[in-house]
Structure formats: structure tokens, C-alpha cells
Amino acid sequence: MEEMIETLPQHTCSWLKDKMTMYKYQDFWAIKRHLEGGIQAQQSFKAEPSDVFLCSAPKTGTTWLKSLVFAIVTREKFDESTTPLLTKLAHECVPILEILQVKEHENNRKNSGFPLVATHFPYASLPKSVISSNCKIVYIYRNIKDVIVSNYHFRREAFKLPMEDAPFEEAFEEFYQGLSNFGPYWDHVLGYWKASLERPDSILLLKYEDLKRDPTSNLKRLADFIGYPFSVDEEKAGVVDNIIRFCSFENMSNLEVNKTGKPNGGTLENRLYYRKAKDGDWMNYFTDDMKEKIDKLTDEKFSGTGLVLK
Question: Where is each Sulfotransferase domain found (predicted)?
């Protein structure tokens, strides 16, 4: 497989001092590690109707969505004092399809009984069984300008580059050209959006900003959709509010595991997944020309869809 990947079109990110190379596969870009796991999943992963797939492009609210859904699904087994989210990053609690071995995930699903799996793969590149099984798919998306800024800082800090050595202008230009991990971002969102119109009973789209604005209604909507609805008694007992509070950025970012740990013995620090979680941070980085440029392209890409990413 590695030899095949090396034959694909390549792009090395100059703003990261050539420390990250992406490969173009099935019309999207990804780093080699993600492609290897994702292609293996395409070939052998067998989804079940009870599975719940949490899908997203990077830096769109994935960590928050995983925390919320994990808390929803496991609330009868764990409470705030026993949940694995106290000792593990959300990305360890909800396995990532393109990183974990397929067999390992199937064993986890069998042993734990938790039907959760996450992926950054575009809709068109999901394993065929994910579609044919009619399992639930939840897709989260976010204001593209905040995605660009979040992606910039995550990659820069992952490679331990100070801002003066990683020009934001270059990072912006690459993203604008569609050269981002699992990008182009517009195509990623459009793929899931179109699928949600065709399969509304199987695919739910959540906008990050809407989830922040009205977490209660959206959490109940999410729980209903994946088949774990809150009872009237649970709502009266404050279960919904407790999940929202526990999974909030303020709480999760202050847990010791998310300040000092590293997931699965890797090199990335957990703290990198908790930067700001604020809307509109892009205004601290974008020039007027950048805003005009990205807004124009986004308007062109999403014309007639009703989607708003700015």
C-alpha cells in the first residue's frame, strides 16, 4: 500500500517548513498515515446498523462532538465521577477509523458495546458498508475562517514552530487552494450535505456555531437522532445540563489528562485539541483582502445550497 500511495500526487506544505506531505487520493488530500488506515478500512471495515459514525473535517468541533456523543451513549454506565473522559482524550474514547486497525475497532465494539467510530474521510470515500448498513452518521461543520485559523495553530504547534517561522499568509493560501488535510474543505462539507438531503433519516448535519448558541436543543436533537433519547425524568433531573457542562471547553480543557497527556502513546499533546473554542477568532488574523477572497469563493461553492460557512 505504501508504494501505491507514493505514486499519488503529492504536496509538501511550505509554511510548515516542508515537515508535512499530503497525497491526493479520490479527489481529497491526506497525510500518508491517514491514507493507509483509511484505505484499509475501505477494503475491510464492516459497519453495523447500530454503529454511530461521527464525521468531520479537521478542526471543526470534532473533539467536542466526540465528548458529547460519548457522554450521551454511555450515561447509563458512567457518571461524571467514573467516565473514561476523565482519564482519556475524547479521541481515545471514540476510535478514529483511519488511525486504528480495523480489527482493533471491531474488537473494541464487541467488548465495550459502544457503537461509536469517527472519521475525517469525505462521504464519497467512506467504506461502502457505512452507507449500505444505514447506520447513523453525524456530521459537524464550522465557519471556514475559524477552521483555517484553528488548523493553522494546530499544525504549527504540532511541529513546534513559532508563529514567526510559520507565516499565516502562506497557510491561508494553501487552504484557499484546497490544500488541507482531508480538503478541499468546501467539497468535504458539500459531500455530506448532499448525502443528508438524500438520506435524512441516516445523516444529521450539525453546525458548530448552532451547537454553541443553543446546546440544550441541539443535544436533545442529537440524542434523539442516534437512538439514545433523554427521558422526561432525565431532563427534570438535569442530565442534559450536566452533560453540556461536563463536556464544555471550560471543563474539558482543565482536566489534567487534557493538559498533560498524549493520546495512545503518540507525540501530539492532548492540550493541542483545546485551544480557544471561540467563534470569530479569525478576525485577529485575516486581512480585509483575505476575508473578501475566502467569502467570494465560499459563496461560489455554496451557491443555492442554503449553507452558510462565514
Answer: 49-306
Higher pLDDT, 78 or 112: 78
Return the closest-CA partner of residue 152 out of 178, 177, 172, 176.
Answer: 172
List, for residues 261-299, the tens digit of each pLDDT value: 566 655 666 555 555 556 778 988 899 999 999 999 999
Residues facing residue 136 across a β-bridge: 52
Domain ranges in the chain are 2-301
Give the tens place of pLDDT for each residue, 33-79: 999 999 999 999 999 999 999 999 999 999 899 999 999 999 999 98
Strand partners, 31: 22
Task: Give residues with Cβ within 8 angstroms of 298, minimum separation 6.
Answer: 144, 186, 309, 310
What is the DSSP code (8-state) at residue 253? T
- Distance, in Å, from the CA atom of 178 to the CA atom of 84, rounded to the nearest integer, reads 36
**Total number of residues shown for the chain:** 310
How far are the Cα atoms of 217, 225, 230 from residue 55, in angstroms, in the given order?
20, 15, 23
CATH code given to domain 2-301: 3.40.50.300
Does residue 120 carry a catalytic annotation? yes
- Report the distance separating Cα 248 and Cα 265, nearest Å: 25
In this predicted model, which residue has the larger pLDDT, 123 or 252? 123
H-helix or E-strand spanning residue 112: helix 102-112
SS (HEC) of 134-146: CCEEEEEECCHHH
Q: Which of 91, 105, 120, 153 is catalytic?
A: 120
Cβ atoms of residues 96 and 121 within 8 Å: no
Do the bridges between strand 136-141 and strand 203-207 make them parallel or antiparallel, or are there none, so unpaired? parallel
- Whether the CB-CB separation of 88 and 94 falls below 8 Å is answered with no
